[in-house]
Amino acid sequence: MKYGYQLLLLLILSVAASGVFAGSSGPARSELERFASGLESFQADFTQTVKSQDGGVQDSSLGKIWLQTPDKLRWAYLGEFPETIVADGRNIWIHDESLQQVTVKPQSDQAADSPLMILADVSQLDSQFQVAELGDYENMLLLELKSLDDEAQFERVLLGLDSTGIRMMAMEDAFGQRTEIYFENALRNQPVDAQLFSFTPPEGTDVVGVPVQPD
Q1: Using CA atoms, how far apart are residues 70 and 121, in angstroms rounded to an integer?
Q2: How many Å apart are CA 77 and CA 133, to the nearest integer?
Q3: CB of 168 within 8 A of CB of 159?
Q4: Most buried in the list 20, 31, 34, 135, measured by CB within 10 Å?
C-alpha cells in the first residue's frame, strides 16, 4: 500500500529527530542524526519509481511531501492519477481523486502495516531493525534498515544521505519489488501551513471507514 511508504518515512525522521540510536554511529547514521537533530518540519518534491525484480519499471510518479514531527504528514501524488495521503495525528486519509473515494484509518491502528508505533518508544529502533552502513552510492551515504520481523511489509529500507540531508529512500519487499523515492528542492524547518495536515472529504466523495474523533 502506498501509505506504508509515507508512514515509514515519518517514522524514520521522527525517530532520528529524537536523537535515540543504539550502538556506534557510522557516517550515514551521523548524517541522518545531524539532519534530523531539532527537526520540526520537512518539505520536498519527489519522484517515485517502482521496479520489478528484474529491474523493469512498473510505475513512476511525481509529487510533493510535507512533514511535521512527530506525527503529521501530507504526501501528494500529482499527474494523471492524483492521490493525496494525509496523516493528521489521529487518522490517515487516503484520497483517490480518480475513483472519487476517500479511505480513512485510525493512525494508531497502523502498527500491523508499518512500524509507526515505534514513535511511542524510540528505543525500539534497533530491536526492530538491523541497522547497517553500506558505504557510498551515487554521491550518497547509504544506511540500511533491515526488518527483524518476518511479516514486515518491507524486507529492508535504504536511506541515501549527504550533507544536505535525506536524498533517497528505497523499499524492497519479499517479492523483489523495489520502490525508489528521490527527494529534490528539500526545505528543513521552514514554515508549513497547518491546514496541509487537515483533511475534509470533498462533497460527493465516497468515504470508506470511520475516522477517530477528537477527545
Answers
A1: 12
A2: 31
A3: yes
A4: 31
